[in-house]
Task: structure prediction
Amino acid sequence: MACLAYAGWRLAYTHFFLRDAYAADGQTLDVTATVAGYPRETAYGFAADARVFGAAATIYLNLYDAPGGFDLALLKPGDRVIGAFRIQAGYAYGKHLTATQREPITIQPAERVPPRYKPLQWAETLRGRIDGLFPPEGAAFLRGLLTGDKSRFSETLREDLFTSGMSHVAAVSGLHISLLAGFLMLWVRRRGWAVCICFPVIFLYAAVAGFPASAVRAALMFGLYLLAPLLGRQYSSPRALPVAAAVIVLANPYAIQDAGFQLSFAATLGLILFAGPLRTFCMARKLLAGLPVRARSAISSAIAASLASLVFSTPIAAITFDGVSLIAPITNVLLLWTVSGLFLIAAAALALTFVWWPAAYVAAFPARWLLEMYFWAIGQVARIPFAAVYTSNVLAVAWLLFAYACLLVGFFRKTWKLPLLYAVFALGLTVGLTVWRESQYALTVTVLNVGQGQCVVVRSRGETAIIDCGGNLSNPGRAAARHLRSVGGRGIEYLLLTHAHADHVNGVPDLLRLLPVQEVWLAYTEEGEAHPPDFDYIPFTGTQTFPLGAADISLIVADWMPGLNEQGMAVVVQYGDVSFITTGDLDAASERWLLRVAEFPKRGVLLAGHHGSAGSGSEEWLDALQPRAVVVSAGRNAFGHPSPEAIERWEAAGAAVYVTRERGDVTVRVPW
Result:
């Protein structure tokens, strides 16, 4: 019945409130967009939340060419942006539309920020004061902790939080609401006064955070907790949870698609169903028997809450983020107190900025110390091998399914000891099998699915080389780091860059921050057509051969003519009679030049040049190499890669063709 009601409401909502928005899909129209948030910088300009055709939207603006540049403070909530935009409909990240600027725009500033957008203005003020109190990395984290703004998180911080299982602290949720509510309840003890004071404050805090589903859910449940005795009813979490879900869905039936909604309600449901039994189980363990009752109760509650919240949220996290932190229960028990302390101390220091800045600086000192300790701790945890498992590892997925089977057995049989032992044993077996499987191959080459770009991971006898690291799908540096960590890799011996185009190097800075890299080699061009990348590297020309584990790698720079593509580097990886060859973005003329200056192995695997463009992979090149297979690293693009002409040539040469856009990661394994 509930499903039918939801389906009916969603259809009605779409018809009455989103009809004009979805009718504009795929068109370029003159649009008047009302800005509903402060602009943020993107790779090609700026983006801002807005209302377009009455629907929540993200507008993308290219204002770098505006006279005198563009000041981020120029746009504020309530302003109107008028111009031609390309409209794309489809719900994602809380927005129904994306509108991309096609022509110069006109901005009509609002005289004042409308009341509905006042919380956004207050949030921006708080973020500015956080920036003034704390160093950049600490301020970025506290912006997330206190206001839910993660836009300034570095890739290292994002990955450390994910791997250590602490990502949830940067989303305003039940943890934040409970800390704020607990602090307020210390001063407001009467239930009636609490309803009048605490609930409005918490609702206002959710508004400042942008009304994320997790904060709204926690605020509604807290409000019901306060109201129940006044209405002569007993509060029940299992009943309050669906009420909160119904309120959110009534406001926006599409919210159920958001990962934040799913994770928040899944974690809360796990707490309701499993926290009590798990706490009882922990209290009965002999390991805690020697501790005082209060300490035993606190530790048992922390362990139970950490484990219970993961029961239903783990599958959602695995699907959404392509991985799961295995060490999350431990880090949450050990480090969550630091987050609670940071929240309260930083919030107090922030409040003092409205009274006297010197007092705020003094009050912020303990928070700075806690920040340093917290960053150090999650950084150390994130570097533990197999601290997280990723869905790219089939064995890890199998373990997750087995662990949930054990959980179900424990739940229905009311016993946890054996199921937990089986799950832990299976985890050890999974890690052991992963390491053993890697040791069975002399050479493993994986072409990662990074969209329109290229990133190749080469492993042999525990040593690693990465060829290029760029793309437009997610983050190529993070993808390479996660792939290595999923097989137990902890560092990179060589990072080999065929040339400096963004689709081959834009993930390098993040990769260098996430994993230690011994040497970075980049094909050198004297023409200066490419600006030097923002990282240290060894400029390289000519040829070079060196071992990587049991394999050999040869580098050949095609420096025979001008042009960044044409002065790229060919890389040959060889073990025995098996080879893997990539030429970056070299064209057919450069391929013919390579055949004159070097001898290439035959019957190997070829990574298609220039993502499978018609100008690469000439017949002479294919006749000389006679590849068994051709792998194409290409995503959705406007260039037609891989081109039909190139595919015809590969198939005529008798090669099997694998395109990452269709198959995901493509791996070549060579046994000993």
About this structure: The longest strand covers residues 80-92. Residues 306 and 329 are 5 Å apart (CA to CA). The radius of gyration is 28 Å.
